[in-house]
């Protein structure tokens, strides 16, 4: 089920107005989340669900209640709002605000990586990982694709895969 907000070609600031119009129908906890999103959508687009609400499940329920498949889809819509509304200078200011001070930059970046690794461990089973490895090992041809910021990772991966396999192709 695709979100009604994402059916449009481009999500615009109307998304937030629509959310504001529905706010009276939400529970108190959901009203709090909605108000925070309306007033801080530029930050929410990059926040984890656990930092947004009292519990991750409350945030996920809120996102599904307003028509999204989950919190990541809601974030995607908010990012589209930002892309459509903010200038380049404003985007840089949002990014700087996210990063915080230079004093805790290293700690914040590493903690974000730790969170991503934990979420990956929670979502991927050992059997799924082994299955993916088996598929790669048994493949006649291994294609590696990486664009934009992932291009360097694709090249890195292809370098090491080429040392192990003869059938590697970077696209």
Question: What labels would you give this structure?
Answer:
single chain; 171 residues; mainly alpha; two-stranded parallel ribbon; 9 helices; 2 strands; elongated
3D architecture notes:
- 15% of the residues are buried.
- With 171 residues, the chain is mostly helical.
- The chain has helices at residues 14-22, 28-44, 49-52, 56-65, 71-85, 88-99, 105-123, 126-138, 151-164, and strands at 142-144, 168-170.
- It contains nine helices and two strands; from the N terminus they run H-H-H-H-H-H-H-H-E-H-E.
- Helix 1 packs antiparallel against helix 2 (28-44).
- The longest helix has 19 residues, at 105-123.
- The protein has a two-stranded parallel ribbon.
- The two termini are 32 Å apart.
- Strand 1, helix 9 (151-164) and strand 2 form a beta-alpha-beta unit.
In terms of structural class, how would the helical and strand content be classed?
Answer: mainly alpha
Strand content: under 5%
User: How would you sum up the major sheet?
Assistant: 2 strands, parallel
What string, H for helix and E for strand, traces the elements in order? HHHHHHHHEHE
How many beta-strand runs? 2
Mean pLDDT: 80
Number of helices: 9
């Amino acid at each position: 089920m695709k979100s009604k907000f994402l059916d449009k070609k481009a999500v615009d600031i109307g998304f937030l107005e629509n959310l504001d119009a529905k706010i009276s129908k939400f529970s108190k906890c959901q009203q709090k989340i909605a108000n925070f999103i309306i007033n801080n959508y530029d930050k929410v687009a990059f926040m984890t669900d656990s930092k947004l609400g009292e519990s991750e499940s409350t945030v996920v329920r809120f996102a599904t209640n307003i028509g999204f498949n989950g919190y990541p889809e809601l974030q995607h819509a908010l990012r589209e709002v930002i892309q459509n509304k903010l200038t380049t200078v404003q985007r840089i200011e949002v990014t700087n605000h996210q990063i915080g001070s230079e004093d805790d930059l290293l700690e914040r970046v590493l903690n974000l990586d730790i969170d991503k690794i934990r979420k990956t461990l929670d979502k991927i089973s050992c059997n799924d990982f082994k299955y993916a490895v088996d598929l790669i090992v048994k493949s006649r041809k291994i294609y590696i694709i990486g664009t934009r910021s992932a291009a360097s990772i694709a090249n890195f991966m292809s370098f090491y895969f080429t040392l192990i396999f003869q059938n590697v192709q970077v696209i």
